[in-house]
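FAQ
Q: What does a multi-component entry look like?
A: The components come first, one per line:
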Amino acid sequence: MALDQNQIRDIAELSRLQIDDDQITAYQQNLSNILALVDQLAAVDTQGIEPMAHPLDATQRLRADVVTEHNQREHFQAIAPHTEQGHYLVPKVVE
Amino acid sequence: MHNKTIAEISRDLAAGVYTSVDITRELLARIEQHDAQYNSFITVTAEQALAQAAAADARRAAGQASAWTGVPIAHKDIFCTNGVLTTCGSKMLSNFVAPYDATIVDHFNQAGAVSLGKLNMDEFAMGSSNESSYYGPVANPWDRSRVPGGSSGGSAAAVAARLVPGATASDTGGSIRQPAAFCGLTGLKPTYGRVSRWGMIAYASSLDQAGVITRTAEDAAMMLNVMAGLDAKDSTCMDHPVPDYTATLNDSLAGLTIGLPKEYFSRDLSPAMAEKVRTAIAHYEQLGATVKDISLPNTHLAIPAYYIIAPAECSANLSRMDGVRFGYRCDDPKDINDLFKRSRGEGFGNEVKRRIMIGTYALSAGFYDAYYNKAQQVRRLIKNDFVEAFKEVDVIMGPTTPTPAFPQGSNSDDPVAMYLEDIFTIALNLAGLPGMSIPCGHINQLPVGLQLIGNYFDEARLLNCAHQFQQVTDWHQHTPHDLA
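Then the predicted structure of the entire assembly, as tokens:
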């Protein structure tokens, strides 16, 4: 399936990716080629086949409901781009 | 010293032939002198390595040494290393000093191994040539104009160039086996869930598995002994008994049944590659194995299914790279959306962006059933092919790759052409099965690999098969022609 340029812009927006205008054509072509590759799947008869979520059909392991992590805020925030008083800072989101 | 395997170094250290500091110094000097032409390391941790080596020698002097005490290795830069830059080959993590150790890194540290540093890789493990790294392409030591394979290209090139005797690696669609084949090495991708992935930066979580690239099957067995086992921190890690993988290396192969899938000897395989694989199979027959023709009829669907499932999972996993808590952040964001979009747009390379976008599209409203659900159904068909085959055979063999290492730049304009390079390796990841690649010959002076596919948790048998082959052949002992 071929994608048009507006679809590429929509997908980039959903993906939160800045794509420069001069690259839209290249993405359009490459992503359309990838979709052409995966479109082979449409012809496969999968009637009644259970989708496979885990190779060994394992289910999520549960653990005892006890605290295992201690607070390491300073340690983890030491590598953050911008923090103040224990908070991660981002541009203002509420007017 | 630099030509020694892990097993030989372990024995030499025990016998006092040289110390851990001696060999660590020699390998660090080799990296300093030669790695500019390969670009296999992103970070060399010389100071920490020498400190670990000195501590290992002290433990040995105190009579507390084990098989791994003082043995040098290096880690693919996908594994978090506490206090050490962990980039995953991306600008996005070019400032990420991990605040903790991955479980397997911790296991090697506890075992007494010495880490020389962090190895180059395709960005976020997405690639088959190690050309998508933000830190530049890696050269194949057998021919520096060619790719080492990917995504674990740095792991393979460093071991092939004798800069380190063994390296950790990871495999989502062939990222251990293909570079091992291209560089004349032994690569092992364990069963999904055999090895903890805690602290291994996630690409496609239902496919990713940690493994190793070494020169010999014996070394791979030694490394897997350190890595395998349940980890409470990884909920996908399986609770399954861990044998001593070195204990069965010398078992006889008499009575072994090998399956040869007709789909792996199709028109995708060059006649020269087919001949090398057939010659290798003949060695196995001389070792007492019998051969049976089998069919894996859904083989041709593996790449299409993978390029829905892996991008879908990567689009979710990489959403954590947002410029807020760690990693790259754009300059002067004008609002929160601009912060997300420019940090990600500037921080990710093209291949990563393509896969995020394909995954986002496949998971978007109205397309989920047609793409993701369909791919997961096809995935079960692919798995069922293997389940049926393993009712009749003990191990499946075939080529690891369609051709030997290709020249750098040859697939760079067409992502789909690059994806097709993984035609023989990707189905195992979809099925969750263990696989190996071992050197089985040369074509035009370039190494090629024999792929061994095992049943679930049958790594010991694969290693046994690989080791026995390496007792009657010497392809794994060849070194790149112009190696200094």
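Q: Is there any commentary attached?
A: Sometimes. For this entry: Residues 52 and 58 of chain A are 11 Å apart (CA to CA).
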